[in-house]
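Why do we bother with holo predictions? Because pocket geometry can differ from the apo form. Keep that in mind while you read this record for nickel (II) ion.
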Amino acid sequence: MTAQVTELFKNIWDNYLEVTPSAEKIHNILGSGSDVINDHVAYRTFNHEKVNIEKLSQHLIALGYKECGEYHFEAKKLYAKHFEHENTELPKVFISQLLTEEFSEEAQAIMNKVVDAIDPALVATPEFLFSGKTWDISYEEYKTLLAESEYAAWLSAWGYRANHFTVSINHLANYTDIVAVNDSLKDSGFELNASGGEVKGNEEVKLEQSSTIADKHAVEFSDQTVEIPSCFYEFAKRYPLDCGNLYTGFVAASADKIFESTNAAA
Ligand code: NI
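The structure, written out:
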C-alpha cells in the first residue's frame, strides 16, 4: 500500500510543479533531498456532494488514511478536515470545502456550472486529485468569483490539484528554526506571505507555519489566457505534546492566514 501512496503523491507533486516551479528551487535551498519530507498537502473543493471532502478523501481512505480533525473558517465560509496515515513520513492531507450556499446567486451559478461539467467517473478515480481544470470558465466569470471569494476563483481556475505542499522543518538536517528557514528563502529572493505576520502560530499552539506567496502561471480561460496566482509552498514546525508525540493537528487561526497566500499582490 505504501508504494501506491508514494506513487499518488509523486503524481500530485509533478502536477503541482507544472504551475509552481519555485517549489523545486526551494527544495534545493532547504535540503539535500532525502531530508525534505512533506508535512502536509492541501486541497480546495466545493461542498457540493459531487466533489465534497468525502469524494476527495475516499482515495486517501482507500490507501490507509484516517479522518482526524475538523476546522471552521467563518469569515472565509469554509469547512475543513485533515487526514493522517499511520506512517508518519507520509504527508497529512488537509481538505477544505467552500460553503457555496453562502454566496450570491451569480457566484453560485458559476460554481454550479463548474461542478456540473465535472465527470463523476473522474471523481471516482485517484487521478482526480491531480486532474486540474476539466471545465471551461471565462476570465469574466473568474473575476466575478474573485470579487466574492479568492478561494472560489482559485479553485475554478486551477481545478483539482494540490493548492500547496508543506516542508516539515522537523525533518530538515540544516534547520531547526522557522525564522532561519524564512530568512534563507528571503535571501534567495522569495516573497513570504506576511498576512498575520510571517510566522503563524507558536510553541504554545504546538505549530508554527509560514508560506511563500503563490507563483504566477498562465491559465487558459475560455476567452483569453491570463497569468494569475497558482500554488505556493508552506513550511511547518511541530512541537511535542505532553505525551512526547508531535502535535499532528492544524490551528484554524493560522490556516485562515495561510489561505491568503494565493491572493494577488495589491
Ligand atoms: Ni497548509
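The chain is about 35% helix and 25% strand.
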